[in-house]
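Action item from last meeting closed. Structure (76 res):
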């Protein structure tokens, strides 16, 4: 993974913790394809983030203690 991809993943992580987003919205925000946005969602799931999808097909990361701990680990 190069630096630009890592930067996009971290931006998306922050974005999904703020409010739910559609795949199309994520892709537009990141300047990527929708397929890439789906891959990033799958990456978060593999990393055990609490990724949820609402009834409008918007994805978000539900904040809980595990998510907060993972974010703090990155900051240290």
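Sequence:
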């Amino acid at each position: 993974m190069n630096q630009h991809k890592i930067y996009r993943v971290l931006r998306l992580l922050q974005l999904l913790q703020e409010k739910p987003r559609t795949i199309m919205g994520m892709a537009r925000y990141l300047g990527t394809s929708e397929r890439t946005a789906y891959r990033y969602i799958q990456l978060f799931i593999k990393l055990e983030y609490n990724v949820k999808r609402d009834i409008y097909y918007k994805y978000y990361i539900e904040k809980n203690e595990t998510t907060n701990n993972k974010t703090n680990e990155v900051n240290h």
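Note appended to the action item: Residues 18 and 37 are 17 Å apart (CA to CA).
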